[in-house]
Amino acid sequence: MNSMKKRWLCLYVENEIGVLARISGLFSGKSYNLDSLTVGVTEDKSISRMTIGLTGDDRTFEQVKKQLNRCVEVIKVVDHTDTAVHRKELMFVRIDGCSEREREEIFRIAQVFDAPVIDCGRDAVLMESVKPERDNDRLIALLRECYVNRIEIARGGSVALEAL
Amino acid sequence: MKITGAELFVKALRKERVDTIFAYPGGQAIDLFNALYGVEDIRVILPRHEQGLIHAADGYARSTGRVGVCLVTSGPGATNLVTGIATANYDCVPLVCFMGQVPTGLIGNDAFQEVDIVGITRSICKYAVTVRRREDLAGTIKKAFIIAQTGKPGVVVVDLPKDIQRECGSDIYPNSVEIRGYKPCVSVHTGQLKRAMELLYSAKRPVFLVGGGVNIGRAGVEMQKLAEITGAPVVTTIMGKGAVPASHALYAGNIGIHGSYAANTAVGRCDVLFSIGTRFNDRITGKTGQFANGASIVHIDIDAASISRNIAVDIPIVADAKAAITALLEMAEPLDIEEWRGQVSAWKKRYPITMKKKGLTPEKIIHAINRIFGRAVITTDVGQNQLWATQFLDLGAERRMLTSGGLGTMGYGFPAAIGAKLGNPGTDVVVITGDGGMQMNSQEMATAVVYELPITVCILNNGYLGNVRQWQEMFYDRRYSSTCMRWRKSCEAGCNKPGKKCPAYTPDFVKLAESYGARGIRVTDEKDIDRALEEAKSRRDVPTVIEFIIAREENVMPIVPPGNALEDMILEVEEERAQQRKRAGKSIMVERE
Fold this sequence. Notes:
The complex is a heterodimer of chains A (164) and B (593). Helix content of chain A is 32%, strand content 40%. Chain A is of the alpha+beta class and 164 residues long.
């Protein structure tokens, strides 16, 4: 019952100065673990939507939801754990010091992972991956192994919307 | 009509029927003070330090049930409120704190007296906001008053940049605003209440645990009725004490690390713990794994986040205490639990909390306060004075106590009494404080004198930061590290034996009181307690400071040692000391019956 697992939350919040600090401060102040947090404005300009990924047990997760609900700035908290949603993360990976052969290899990896190369220099390649978090983790693991100390990663954090 | 932001501020206070504000001026609040100048229907109280100011507003709010309003300047004015904000918010006191701020154009420039007070207070208040546009001012103030006093009450911080105060704009102050993210609990789930009552009827050894929520919700009368109809014993937290009169036959005492034997044992042995308005803070649970072991627990609280956080609960109910208890009353019936009731009251008789000592003891002083002051508001500081007050004060509807229960803020008691007296001019106000806490806000003596407030200040002076000293004595081998208030540079190093050679106390509290124009009395003998208190009570326009010189190493007993279950308490320290001498170090537990 008290199992540690990955959880997802979707938050509708007031699009105001300080709200992000309020939410992130709640996590740090109460020692809740936070894996990722993304935020963007919604179709209603006065409301922002946050997607939060965290790992925790049932009891802590219940507390997190209750504490978020208590915030005046939070309009709605939706639990996306174990529900049907489309969730993806944008990630860029740059690989430096590539030989001709390595570049070809990277193009093949890009095809297999459906993560196109979007920029290419004399000895560097830039890939873009828009995938669920775990697929991006797998891609990183592979690239890290093949191109030791030559990769640079920028991950955007996941965004999600309920499936139809 | 167009008016300035400062004028709108005054209009808003009037519309909110604020008749008293606690305020300290400064550069970025000067326009607000200018607008208040000559206003006759709003009393502006000027304390001597912003910390004293906010505790006074807190005491005013707790004792009247109305919103306490603070007004200070930016920077240090604002940061001096921080401890008071956390104090009030922790104990669910409705305050609205207005703070001046540098003009919006200067925010972020490291301007003179600029701090990000919203950032600083965000995690210790209910809501904090900077007003960034003049057109938002009225709505924001309205929102602040709504949020502070509805649901679980709390503190709202409103940061007012100087240009907003000066800018002209609409004079409309709304009667209501919609706050879409704020849904205070208003309804009661009757189905859950029914389940809770069914559980109670099935109980053989039920106990009502009453927390501060019952006092905040002013549901004491209803709670007493519920206890009387069902006949179940009642225990309280410190914050819940007085909800049911302490003299009531069904009342078994406070629970917690300094709770009574009867109350802690009753909670340990009950089969249904029916709790209302408590957050199950670590001070009352002891070792959580063994708290109310074997009992089914009902938990009614206005804050969903308080439920099932520290203690797993069988029947959770999110509701306002008064609404819930009122609904429960309609279902209440007598329980067949005579034997259990008899057992609890036998524990109460057999192990009363008493100091059984000769001389001037805190017990005798507090009993005299009970006797001499009928209807009264009593504030306490934090530490031993507070714990003795919670043990010995005979609280009820007539005699109420204000204490910093959650944050445990030293320096709270005296300024809170000033606020309480301003809000209840016809009621006696008594402070029970220590020599340490009194010095944390003693400058407010000037406030009490200039506003001609006849407050009775009882300083229990043992020359120590007594609560920490007690822990050092009991759990840290008498290593009195930084707890002696009579220490001087010329003292012997590592001294842990108070005696006749100790240097005189600094300051002389009697002379200190007199220097402010207050009355000062020193009591060293128990036979002078009543006379001193009666004299203080007879004063009509000047505060009286009574310094009671109590035994230096007086302890608060019983005590549940850290890490122990509630039932494993030490009742008598003398006994404990003797045992320690005998078998070096191992603490004795009370014999279980």
